[in-house]
Amino acid sequence: MANLTQSLKNGAYLQSSATLLLFFASWGIWWSFFQIWLTNEEHGLGLNGSEVGTVYSVNSLATLVIMFFYGTIQDKLGLKRTLVIIASVAMALVAPFFLFVYEPLLRHVFVAGVLAGAVFLSLGYMAAAGLLEAVAERLSRTYGFEYGQARMWGSFGYAMAALMAGFLFTINPTLNFIGGSIFGVVCLLVQLFWKTSSVPVAPGHSDHPQTPSLREMAGLLKIPRLWLIIVFVLFTWTFYTVYDQQMFPEFYTTLFETKERGQQVYGVLNSIQVFVEAAMMGVVPILMHKVGVRATLMMGVTVMCLRILGTAVFDDAVLVSIVKMFHAIEVPLFILAIFRYFTLHFPSALSATLYMVGFQISAQIGNVILSQPLGALRDSIGYQSTFYVISATVFAAGVYAYFTLKRDDQDVFGDPFVRDSAKAPVEADT
Q1: Which of 420, 425, 158 is nearest to 285 (CA)?
Q2: Domains plus CATH for the chain?
Q3: Contact at 8 Å (CB) between 110 and 102?
Q4: What is residue 426's DSSP assignment?
Q5: 13 by DSSP, 3-state: which?
Q6: Cβ(94)–Cβ(26) under 8 Å?
Q7: How many CB atoms lie within 10 A of CB 41?
Q8: For 49-98, how does the pLDDT look when each residue is reduced to its tens digit (9 = 90+)?
């Protein structure tokens, strides 16, 4: 791993870190309160659960489509920042879009507002997240710095923005969107004027990294073992995402004497959670080497289920706040373990594509399918009853995973995983 001190002398690392910090700050300052803005009658639009589900569902569909276009075009552009500049322009315009286009349309022409928002927000944020991370990862290989050391600045930017967001929202949500535009403008200036062409290419790195084509990605769907993972993702991560993004923020604010107080506390708690999550990103790999990939992934599902169940059982603000912090543990456990699972049990040359198809895209498809029905269920039976349904679904998926996920020494078609003080696994015959 590259030393952080050496990375600080690397212009490409500094530029990538600044880009990720500004992007996630621009996103986090309004996204962390997006669901509350949609549902809150005093400081937002007052949409019901079914309407919020429709917004998220169409957003996910647009993200899925734009993600493909971003990936295909960026492969041809290599390290050029054309698409990053386009995304930065959208970030810079997020406040005018929300104030003069998105909010009026959602109030008066709901369908048109949903469609316009899905395209704009995907271009600037939801699909752009994968784009910016992919570009940063390519730069890390080309110029010889550790990608994780750049990505941590993104988490830091989101945490700082989330901390400000709660206080700004209670004053006026418009300030959140203006903050997003300010960070977006700075990010755009970084792309236009901060050049890295003078940074020497690292030995052994290529400035034209190869990525699989869409045909290769589609061909992966013929692998039965991949479908076992897709089913697992749909009934764990997708349900959890709908719960965490579409339902929990508004539910949390109802636990306080006033919603304004709840929104402020939520912003602070969300910021603390992201800081802890960033720290856990460094701890989980150590844990994984102790217990193994499959065990780590099962731990992630367990914490996920307990987080959802805890909010179904408790209605005390302090207890629910403690339960929310489980998110900082669950995300690193699940994300890092499932990526390593792909590189362990599938050909490592296709690991990034497998991760995209088996996790990111399947999760987006799941959001398209589940967002509106779960939102309607929340309207019908309430938040906490819906949380019981979601936690039961995740628990069932965990039982399914226990019997279907491969052991670390079983069907090793990728990079073998060796636990500390353990013998190397025996590779399966190919």
Answers
A1: 420
A2: 12-195 (1.20.1250.20), 216-420 (1.20.1250.20)
A3: no
A4: P
A5: helix
A6: yes
A7: 9
A8: 888 888 988 998 898 888 878 877 776 777 788 999 999 999 999 999 99
